[in-house]
Amino acid sequence: METEMSWQKSSFSGGGEQCVEVARHAGEIVLRESDDPRVVTRTSRDTFAAFIQGVKAGEFDQFVR
Question: Considering only CA atoms, which of 3, 5, 57, 62 is closest in space to residue 28?
Answer without folding.
Answer: 5
